[in-house]
Automatic annotation (TrEMBL):
Biological classification of the source: Bacteria, Bacillati, Bacillota, Bacilli, Bacillales
SUPFAM superfamilies listed in its UniProt record: Homeodomain-like (SSF46689)
Keywords: Coiled coil
Protein species of origin: Paenibacillus azoreducens
Segments forming a coiled coil: 56-86
Record protein name field: Transposase
Cross-referenced InterPro entries: Homeodomain-like_sf, InsJ-like_HTH
Top-rank taxon, per record: Bacteria
Occurrences of domain Insertion element IS150 protein InsJ-like helix-turn-helix (ranges): 9-45
UniProt KW Coiled coil keyword: yes
Amino acid sequence: MGKRLKEEERIKIVKEALAGVKVGVLARMYDIHPETIRGWIRDYRDSIAPEEIPMADEHLQELQRLQEVEQRYEKAVKALGEKELENEILRELLKKKNPSYLKNSK
């Protein structure tokens, strides 16, 4: 979104952030830099009444679901990286002619 957003659109995004959607998720979804959104939050948060913050509409639920999927993906990538490292260590151990783990097991 190269164009400047109208104030109503900026306020809508701020309300989603105040409802618990992470700024990073909103930034990717709306193609807006996270710092821009953080600035809007600072500018508008005091003017938004608590009852104006969306609770459980479908759009917000979808954003929260996306956030959960991203968190699970990050955990899976980390776990996969750790498994790859373990496999590499095991491959290196198998290449050794006289591995120390065999000497200690007698």
